[in-house]
Task: inverse folding
């Protein structure tokens, strides 16, 4: 590195240039879009876990309260919410993990 | 890390990152695309950025990974051909160069850019990482996911190729 070629290469790679203003502005828009998407995803995650939890509670109540026809219908809906909630939560988590692995950070 | 924090982090490293992208892509349009993709990907995975660690290395690592994808895409779109000479070298020259020497230095740096552009990616990347600064062999090996010994031999081969060409042309 101390030889002439080393000096030439160091000089070659020594220049530092910032991104142009238009690129900065475009990037800011992109970052805001990513932030919005992340917030939406987090909201879905909370919503789906809540659905799963309430469905589990519904099932418990149905078992405790005599298993009537009405309770059965409510339970069917609860089961549907449970499955949907878990599916959405898993999809959100997988999407987040996939994002990380695509960037080569894991 | 919030958007504001990430933007501050990016501002602190934007010159390094953008210059690195320009050296990787050797084409302003592609470099801008690469810079943008790198920053967006870093933001998406920013939970893993620990400012106490080395965020610059993290950003450069993402840039390398993104470059590999972008290169394939760009080659398919015909925007990148192997051996295309470097376009628009940085206008900055190292300090202390006399005006009469500047033209010669610029010509030399232009030629070095062309030689690097013509070099195989496997030899070019270790050279960029090594001479871009603050990268020891271990860090380069981790960034390129190759053994340390391979980094050493590729650096050696890359330097020898450059030395040979520059000596033949009378620059060295």
Result:
């Amino acid at each position: 590195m101390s030889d002439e070629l080393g000096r030439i290469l160091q000089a070659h790679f020594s220049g530092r240039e910032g991104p142009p203003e238009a690129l900065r502005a475009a990037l800011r828009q992109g970052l805001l879009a990513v932030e919005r998407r992340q917030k939406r995803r987090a909201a879905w995650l909370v919503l789906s876990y809540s659905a799963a939890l309430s469905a589990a509670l519904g099932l418990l109540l149905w078992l405790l309260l005599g298993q009537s026809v009405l309770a059965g219908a409510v339970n069917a809906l609860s089961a549907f919410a449970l499955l949907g909630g878990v599916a959405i939560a898993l999809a959100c988590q997988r999407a987040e993990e996939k994002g990380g692995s695509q960037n080569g950070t894991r | 890390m919030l958007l504001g924090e990430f933007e501050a982090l990016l501002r602190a490293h934007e010159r390094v990152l953008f210059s690195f992208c320009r050296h990787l892509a050797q084409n302003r349009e592609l470099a801008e695309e690469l810079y943008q993709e790198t920053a967006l990907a870093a933001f998406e995975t920013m939970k893993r950025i620990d400012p106490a660690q080395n965020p610059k290395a993290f950003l450069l690592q993402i840039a390398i990974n993104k470059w590999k994808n972008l290169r394939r895409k760009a080659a398919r779109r015909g925007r990148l051909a192997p051996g295309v000479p470097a376009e628009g070298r940085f206008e900055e020259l190292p300090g202390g160069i006399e005006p009469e020497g500047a033209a010669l230095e610029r010509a030399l740096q232009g030629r070095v850019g062309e030689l690097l552009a013509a070099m195989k990616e496997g030899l070019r990347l270790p050279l960029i990482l090594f001479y871009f600064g603050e990268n020891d062999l271990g860090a380069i090996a981790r960034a390129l996911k190759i053994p340390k010994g391979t980094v050493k031999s590729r650096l050696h081969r890359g330097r020898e190729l450059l030395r040979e060409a520059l000596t033949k042309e009378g620059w060295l």
Notes: Chain B is about 70% helix and 0% strand. Residues 93 and 156 of chain B are 26 Å apart (CA to CA).
